[in-house]
Amino acid sequence: MRRGLRLSAPLALLLLLAACAPTPLVLRPGTGAERAAQAQRAQVLAQLPVWQASGRIGVADAQQGGSGGFDWAEDGESIDFTLTAPITGRSFRLQSGPDGACLSGLKPQPVCAFDAAGLLRTELGWELPLRELRAWVLGMAAPGSASRMQYGRDGLPAQLQQDGWVIQYRSWDRQARPLAMPRLIEAQRAPYSVRLYVEQWRFPELAAKPATASSAHGDAPGRR
């Protein structure tokens, strides 16, 4: 990564320690019931193409990285992602849809390209599998390629392997509705790593609807 929003010292140290000494996960292939519950999760989320998440993100390679707070909004095929750096408050905004992507906040004028992932690679030096990450952050495999999902003691996804990336779900938000959602996500493919901590999930389409009595994995014990 040649450039971009650099890590603040405390967060850089936190990410370094997490990368050097991660807590081992207990991984299992998953029972038939767990795989069926995961399939139900996918069906529920497929009916909710509009969602929002906010929290903190760290992106790094073997040399440097960037980090900050993020606000991520999805509306079907459209992405609106804003990252704000700690301390300085410097931010950039990525907006992407079927017609292309634009990145604003780094230069006097927005920079646009057809491919959002390529735009981030060119302007920030960030190697992000953006299309796949949109599924991974929801706790699901991305469509279109082979994957392997493993589960934790609580029956929720713990590790996903896809396209050379290893994605680990280290904690889940059991209070999220309509179902449990990933809270801490770590994705790695040497030398790249992405760490997402989601502080809040929002599904606007459910705002005016009463909560259901139960949902897929909603009552499963979560990892904290």
Automatic annotation (TrEMBL):
- Which Pfam families does this entry report, sorted A to Z? LolB (PF03550)
- Cleavable signal peptide: 1-21
Domain of life according to the entry: Bacteria
Example of a GO biological process term? lipoprotein localization to outer membrane
InterPro entries reported in the protein's UniProt record: LolA/LolB/LppX, OM_lipoprot_LolB
Indicate yes or no for the key word Transport. yes
What the entry lists under CDD domains is as follows: LolB (cd16326)
Name a single GO cellular component.
cell outer membrane
Keywords in UniProt for this one?
A: Cell outer membrane, Chaperone, Lipoprotein, Membrane, Palmitate, Protein transport, Signal, Transport
Membrane topology, as annotated: Lipid-anchor
Q: Where in the cell is it found?
A: Cell outer membrane
**Keyword hit for Transferase:** no
Q: What function is annotated for this protein? A: Plays a critical role in the incorporation of lipoproteins in the outer membrane after they are released by the LolA protein.
So what family is this one in?
Belongs to the LolB family.
- Assembly information from the UniProt record: Monomer.
What is the official name of this protein in its record?
Outer-membrane lipoprotein LolB
Q: What organism is the protein native to?
A: Metallibacterium scheffleri
Organism placement in taxonomy: Bacteria, Pseudomonadati, Pseudomonadota, Gammaproteobacteria, Lysobacterales
Q: Which gene encodes it?
A: lolB
